[in-house]
Design goal:
single chain, 7-stranded mixed sheet, 173 residues, 4-stranded antiparallel sheet, mainly beta, Coagulation Factor XIII, Chain A, domain 1, 2 helices
């Protein structure tokens, strides 16, 4: 109560505008997934990954070619101190990086220093279908582009994640 949520929706990198959802739409979305705080980033755990969705097909009219993508739902408990860069590594079973995508969240349209406390941000990233066919899991994290230093990453229980990256399995075991 008293916590205002806003939701920034970023379309694929070619889309240039941002759309805001109502607080009710945000609450319904997060309630539907019943997932809160999958991982946190930063020494103070101030950047939270609330949820993610993987799509194996094209559902957006803004994508020129059929593509898979991942939607990340971020929230910060305080405005981040720097403009962090997101990394998404597509890894094989042995951890070999098949492909990677590094860049500011929200396709550089909404840098982390602009994030407000309590605001939830939807961040969409295309994934190469060719690389996905050879990928066992994704590794996701944040780093400072000036130093290359990754932000400390923690699971939902507060335990430090290996390589400061959240691993998202893609294949059924």
């Amino acid at each position: 109560m008293g916590r205002r949520l806003s939701f920034v929706v970023a379309a694929m990198p070619s889309r240039r505008d941002l759309v805001r959802m109502t607080d009710e739409e945000v609450d319904a979305f997060l309630h539907e997934r019943q997932t809160m705080n999958i991982a946190t980033f930063g020494p103070d755990h101030s950047i939270q990954l609330l949820a993610y969705t993987l799509s194996a097909f094209n559902v957006s009219p803004f994508i020129l070619h059929p593509s898979s993508f991942i939607l990340l739902y971020w929230q910060s408990t305080a405005p981040p101190a720097a403009d962090y860069t997101l990394f998404i590594h597509m890894r094989a079973v042995d951890g070999f990086v098949r492909s990677q995508a590094d860049g500011p969240p929200v396709s550089s349209h909404y840098p982390t220093t602009a994030w407000q406390s309590g605001e939830t941000i939807q961040d969409i990233h295309p994934l190469s279908a060719t690389d996905l066919a050879q990928t066992d899991h994704l590794a996701i994290g944040l780093y400072d582009p000036l130093t290359g230093q990754r932000l400390p990453a923690f699971d939902a229980a507060g335990q430090r994640l290996s390589d400061d990256a959240l691993l998202i399995p893609l294949k059924q075991k």
